[in-house]
């Protein structure tokens, strides 16, 4: 009985706080994305061959965890199969956040564009029973800085 | 030292190829961060402690790669790749590798 109460409280907390945090995160992502839209980040491997570009490696990483309620949903999904929507939004948030952090770093050094963008995803603490559901995303690329200004 | 994940440098020629250089760093999280992460696992959201931890170890791995590149006399590392693997419970390995070259 006591276990059930704890479980339900955790579920409710996870749902309430998790939904609120996710909505807030998405709002901030969308706002920053529109601000950084003018800085293109492209997955093309070869940059324009102009000698006046300086380059620097930029990267952004984030570790995000899924909440208790969504983990419970995902566990249910494991029984029936199908799309695990609760994890899809987790990965979507993580990727967009990592790219934004990379772009922010590029903006800070005055880059004109970012080339050869790559993503790297790792599920850290894999195998630990209590902590499944946190994922790390790293986005990195080469920022090209127009050096004619200096 | 120029570090880039492009295969060439605009406007510069590679005059010597010096082979693959690499750097790695294995880090474990400490207990305090673990407890915070446990709480976050209920509420969801970013695990800032882990983000910083991985960022630090990535910088360390890059530094090691850079030292190795300097030792072979390179002035640039091109085509750099990152890789992460969790080798044991609670420990992550960050691995960086690239091609050491000398630019003109």
Question: Your description of this structure?
Answer:
The complex is a heterodimer of chains A (150) and B (104). Chain A is elongated and about 70 Å long. With 150 residues, chain A is α+β, with helices and mostly antiparallel strands. Chain A has one domain: Translation Initiation Factor IF3 (2-Layer Sandwich). Chain A has a 3-stranded antiparallel beta sheet with strand order 1-3-2. Chain A has helices spanning 2-35, 68-80, 85-108; strands at 53-65, 113-122, 134-146. Chain B is an alpha+beta fold and 104 residues long. Chain B has a single domain (2-103), classed as Translation Initiation Factor IF3 (2-Layer Sandwich), CATH 3.30.110.70. Helix content of chain B is 36%, strand content 43%. Chain B contains 2 helices and 5 strands. In chain B, strand 4 (76-88) and strand 5 (91-103) form a beta hairpin. The mean pLDDT of chain B is 85. The A-B interface holds A 10, 13-14, 17-18, 21-22, 25, 45-53, 55-57, 59, 61-68, 70-71, 97, 115-116, 118, 120, 122-128, 130-131, 133-134, 136, 138, 140-142, 144 and B 2-12, 37-38, 40-48, 50-51, 54-55, 58, 80-86, 89-90, 92. Strand 1 (53-65) of chain A pairs antiparallel with strand 3 of chain B.
Q: How many discrete domains of chain A?
A: 1
Instruction: Specify which chain pair forms the largest interface.
Output: A-B, 53 and 37 residues
Could you name the CATH topology of chain B?
A: Translation Initiation Factor IF3
Count up the helices of chain B: 2
Describe the sheet with the most strands of chain A: 3 strands, antiparallel
The major β-sheet of chain B equals: 4 strands, mixed
Q: Could you give the distance between the termini of chain A?
A: 70 Å
What's the helix-strand series of chain A? HEHHEE
The CATH class label of chain A is: Alpha Beta
Rounded average pLDDT of chain A: 85
Q: Oligomerization state of this entry?
A: heterodimer
Please write the CATH class name of chain B: Alpha Beta
Q: Could you list the spans of chain A in which at least 5 consecutive residues all have pLDDT below 50? A: none
**C-alpha termini separation of chain B:** 13 Å
Give the strand tally of chain B.
Answer: 5
Total helix count of chain A? 3
């Amino acid at each position: 009985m006591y276990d059930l109460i704890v479980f339900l409280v955790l579920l409710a907390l996870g749902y309430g706080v998790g939904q609120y945090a996710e909505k807030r995160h998405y709002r901030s992502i969308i706002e920053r994305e529109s601000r950084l839209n003018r800085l293109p980040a492209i997955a093309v491997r070869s940059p324009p061959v102009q000698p006046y570009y300086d380059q620097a490696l930029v990267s952004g990483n984030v570790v995000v965890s899924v909440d208790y309620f969504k983990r419970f949903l995902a566990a249910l999904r494991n029984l029936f199969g199908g799309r695990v929507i609760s994890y899809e939004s987790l990965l979507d948030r993580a990727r967009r956040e990592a790219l934004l952090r990379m772009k922010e770093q590029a903006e800070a050094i005055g880059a004109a564009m970012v080339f050869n963008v790559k993503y790297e995803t790792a599920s850290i603490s894999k195998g630990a029973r209590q902590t499944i559901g946190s994922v790390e995303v790293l986005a990195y690329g080469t920022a090209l800085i127009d050096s004619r200004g200096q | 030292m120029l570090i880039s994940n492009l295969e060439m440098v605009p406007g510069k020629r590679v005059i010597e190829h010096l082979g693959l250089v690499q750097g790695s760093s294995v880090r474990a999280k400490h207990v305090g961060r673990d407890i915070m992460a446990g709480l976050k696992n209920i509420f969801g959201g970013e695990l800032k402690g882990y983000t910083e931890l991985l960022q630090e170890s990535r910088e360390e791995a890059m530094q090691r790669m850079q030292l190795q590149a300097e030792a072979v006399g390179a002035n640039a590392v091109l085509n750099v790749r990152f890789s992460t693997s969790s080798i044991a419970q609670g420990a992550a390995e960050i691995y960086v590798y690239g091609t050491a070259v000398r630019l003109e």
